[in-house]
């Protein structure tokens, strides 16, 4: 009997296809721009889209991601992830607990969990998380987060000892993503720096390249951003 295998989370840029940033641009158009730029991980973050529209959007975006060979995760809602055929879900404190998300998704689904530090990362792993989203690394206006900004030093300290891959989130931009990658982060999650850009695809390309440069240890501070 074959054991079902879940996809691994690709390393690098992790993009939030978010309905709160530039809300006038439809999610499907955002996703098209992100995928045209080569995004390999897309999280669909829907905070203001009515549920039935959210389901339709999830189905469209998941299908587009699958055609492009990208991993698509749904933020918050395990039901929408299952109904849309997404690769998995990202949950935080106000969502279903990680254990329940894992139980509903089964062994084939990716589960990401928001954490604020090392102890929470260990607990997330025990609960079945595949990766953790750690932040805010830098200041952000996209979400009001009830936790202190970690800064690169605080972030790097968790990355060094985390038992699961760490994706940094909060204020990640072209000018800091290489430094974030140089800490050993598995990914850098970005919403506004991409979604507010005139050319989403081009911004995805530049952020991905900067992350990859930083991960190789060849980031030049203040260099080609
Ligand atoms: C990769 C990643 N990390 C953290 C979060 C935040 O999730 P959560 O704490 O549930 O907050 P909301 O995004 O739901 O407002 C995330 N979405 N992605
Ligand atoms: C969802 C979330 N959780 C912590 S910060 C954040 C928002 C990230 O958005 P941006 O990349 O615009 O700072
Ligand atoms: Mg959430």
Task: List key phrases describing it.
single chain; 225 residues; alpha/beta; 9 helices; 40% helix; disordered C terminus; binds the ligand Cc1ncc(COP(=O)(O)OP(=O)(O)O)c(N)n1; binds 4-methyl-5-hydroxyethylthiazole phosphate; binds magnesium ion
Outline the structure in words.
Helix content is 40%, strand content 17%. By secondary structure, it is α/β, with parallel strands linked by helices. The protein has an 8-stranded parallel β-barrel, surrounded by 7 helices. Helix 2 (51-68) links the parallel strand 2 (41-45) and strand 3 (71-75). The radius of gyration is 16 Å and the shape is globular. The N and C termini lie far apart (49 Å). Residues 219-225 have low confidence and may be disordered. Bound molecules: ligand LCLJCK34, 4-methyl-5-hydroxyethylthiazole phosphate and magnesium ion.
């Amino acid at each position: 009997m074959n054991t079902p295998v879940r996809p691994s989370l690709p390393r690098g840029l992790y993009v939030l296809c978010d309905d709160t940033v530039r809300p006038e641009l439809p999610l499907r158009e955002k996703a098209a721009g992100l995928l045209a730029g080569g995004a390999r991980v897309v999280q669909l973050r829907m905070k203001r889209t009515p549920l039935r529209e959210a389901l339709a959007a999830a189905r469209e975006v998941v299908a587009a991601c699958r055609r492009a060979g990208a991993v698509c995760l749904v933020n918050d809602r395990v039901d929408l992830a299952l109904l849309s055929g997404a690769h998995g879900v990202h949950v935080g404190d106000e969502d279903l607990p990680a254990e329940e998300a894992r139980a509903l998704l089964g062994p084939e689904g990716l589960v990401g969990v928001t954490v604020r530090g090392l102890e929470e990362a260990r607990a997330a792993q025990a609960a079945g998380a595949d990766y953790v989203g750690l932040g805010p690394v830098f200041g952000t206006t996209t979400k009001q987060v009830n936790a202190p900004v970690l800064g690169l030093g605080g972030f790097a300290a968790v990355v060094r000892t985390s038992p699961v891959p760490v994706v940094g989130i909060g204020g990640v931009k072209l000018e800091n993503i290489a430094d974030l990658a140089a800490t050993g982060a598995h990914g850098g999650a970005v919403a506004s720096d991409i979604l507010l850009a005139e050319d989403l695809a081009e911004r995805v390309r530049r952020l991905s390249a900067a992350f990859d440069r930083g991960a190789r240890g060849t980031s030049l501070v203040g260099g080609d951003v």
